[in-house]
Design brief:
The chain has 331 residues and is α/β, with parallel strands linked by helices. 49% of the residues are buried. The structure holds 5'-O-[(R)-(carboxyoxy)(hydroxy)phosphoryl]adenosine.
Length: 331
Amino acid sequence: MKDILVLGIESSCDETSVAVVKNGRDILSNVIDTQIPIHEKYGGVVPEIASRNHIEAISRVTKKALQEAKVSFGDIDVISPTYGPGLVGALLVGLSYGKALSYALNKPLVGVNHIEGHIAANYITYKELEPPFLCVLISGGNTQIINVKNYTEFEMLGKTRDDAIGEAFDKVARVVGLGYPGGPKVDKLAKEGKPNIKLPKTHFENSLDFSFSGIKTAVINYNHNNQNINKADLCASFEKAVTEVLTENVTEAIKQTGTKQVAIAGGVSANQFIRKAFLDLENKFNGLKVYMPDMKLCTDNAAMIASAGYFNYLKGNTNELDLNAVPNLKI
Ligand code: KG4
């Protein structure tokens, strides 16, 4: 079969990224232009500033992605921009650029759900991984346990009822004065601390849903009510509590479905403590294999979008040029 090259385009939040991926699994290039230093001084992503910076970056990043892949526009078979979920103005930049390329080059357009992209990061890291499997999506906007039935069909088994886990990490980082983006900073500081502060963990009866707002509020209150707090201990305690909430629900999901494959995905899957806790599940369930994307594929990037685009293209899921951005797109 002829190789299929997909040009993936990602602009849903604060990374402008363009990638060329062969047959859904082999990265030829994955250029990521991050806006983190721009948003850092505001303590979070400013949507209007993000959109403007995507506009300034998108052509340059695309040119670089083609150069690094050593291909030209004529070699590309499919154009796959993210069309949701995300910030609407930011999404529109990558999507409009992708639609224009699709029209000008006369190549099929395959819009990609960003969440499917995060899941697909695992197909790049593990060439042998095939559905069905459970995927635990832990990112800045989502916390979900997803039954990946096949490459394009998904069933939601549990989700957060309030904050996403990444949001809780970012908020805790801000409260203890670590700055933005908080997740990696909490991860680093927690390694120096002891998890000796008791924080509440929420579980719902007969449900695989999550809640992280209680833990987050408890950290905020602890910080307000105590003097000379040990930040490292607080970070370690927070990390331990959210990890236990995650793995307890995932343990239940494994029991209910009998799955032998569990993957994690999303920015928070870069967390070292969480990665170790998921690997430990292999010792708890006979024959279970745990998958986790390469560190550079955990946070937003266009290679994972191109991978998801490839599998949707094979399924015949192409789009017309009237495809619009969908900020609250679900899986
Ligand atoms: O997947 P992502 O890049 O964007 C979304 O699609 O949401 O995830 C970003 C989130 C942020 O909340 C960031 O703080 C968190 O992932 N994150 C981490 C780590 N690296 C990134 N959280 C905990 N530990 C990390 N090492």
